[in-house]
Amino acid sequence: MMKTRVLKASLASTRECVQLLQKGYPVALPTETVYGLAANGLDESALRKIFEVKGRPLIDPLILHFKSLTHVKEHAQDNHLLSKLGKLFWPGPLTLIVAKKTSIPDLATAGMKSVAVRVPSNTVFRSILETIDFPLAAPSANPFGYISPTTAEHVLSTLGNRIHLILDDGPTNYGVESTILDIRNPLKPTILRHGPILIEDLERCLGVTILDPKTDGDNQFENQVAPGQLKQHYSPHTALSLLPYGTWKRGINLKLSAGPEKIALVYTRKPKVICDQTYWLSEVGNMDEIARNLFSTLHKLDAMKLDKVYIELPSKNGFGAAINDRLQRAAAKSMQ
């Protein structure tokens, strides 16, 4: 059985990662959003290993990570929005959907003629991209459909003994995946996944209204244009139920009436009444803190073998749209 090593990010450990990547092996790397399972984005054999390790369906495309906007243009068709958005938001947590060039394997794009691209800002990831001559495909480093990993420990607990190496750079900065914007039609930019780059910031940059179809993932068996579109995703093993924003009293009542069931309550801010197994994602409801702590809290609670977790949805404003999206998809499994 393969033994997974966890190494702190250093010059020596990044060199070892580069060697494994050049040989076609996937490794787990930190990004500013979540930890990614990275492999050569131009090598079909390496890409297939990502799908095998994660148990990811081939209908779900991968995001390719590049060292620069110039490098993106070597493998993707340019348009004026790609250049404008890339110059303003890269490096950073924005993924753009653009037409691909033939250098990108169809395996990376679920057979689509488009590709998801971004330039990450994590310094460790960037140092590796600067050393190699190919982009890195890097979906979240976890079994497909499970809670996204925001620490090296999360990766080890789910993919241990399935990959050679995890590079540990501490907790990720944002805690949720990148914003995805479809710009294949520059006249109709469309948000496909909410994330750290807010729709209002994109609209301010472009000077146009961005379409927000609020994809619900009904086409579960069709090839997807971007990752994160399936209705069920980010799901813990423990049953997860959602509480409307601001209904902390309802959670207390559910806890009191639970009987022998082992239940945890999770709030967006510290509640006025605290009972056993009560948690909060931020003392004061700060959206950045809520996002940063969301997946790590779900990992912690899932390991406790509870019967059910109730979690309060945040406000839908700003970053709340991304958090709501993740929670709705995470709870879909329990609602079936």
Task: Describe the SSE topology.
Layout: E1 5-8, H1 11-22, E2 27-29, E3 36-40, H2 44-54, E4 63-65, H3 69-75, H4 80-89, E5 94-99, E6 114-118, H5 123-131, E7 136-137, H6 152-159, E8 165-168, E9 179-182, E10 190-193, H7 199-206, E11 239-243, H8 248-256, E12 263-267, E13 278-280, H9 287-302, E14 308-312, H10 320-335
Parallel strand pairs: 1-8, 4-6, 5-9, 11-14, 12-13, 12-14
Antiparallel strand pairs: 2-3, 3-7, 4-7, 5-6, 9-10
Helix pairs in contact: 1-5
Structure description:
- The chain is of the alpha/beta class.
- It folds into two domains: 202 residues, DHBP synthase, CATH 3.90.870; 97 residues, 3-Layer(aba) Sandwich (Rossmann fold).
- The chain is 32% helix and 17% strand.
- The chain has ten helices and 14 strands.
- The strands form three sheets. Strands 2-3-7-4-6-5-9-10 form an eight-stranded mixed β-sheet, with helices on both faces.
- A hairpin with a 7-residue loop joins strand 9 and strand 10.
- Helix 1 packs across helix 5.
CATH topology of the largest domain: DHBP synthase
CATH level 4 superfamily of the largest domain = DHBP synthase
Helix content: 25-40%
Domain count: the total is 2
Count up the helices. Answer: 10
Overview features:
10 helices, eight-stranded mixed beta sheet, 17% strand, four-stranded parallel beta sheet, Rossmann fold, alpha/beta, DHBP synthase, 336 residues, 2 domains
Short description:
32% of the residues lie in helices and 17% in strands. It is of the alpha/beta class and 336 residues long.
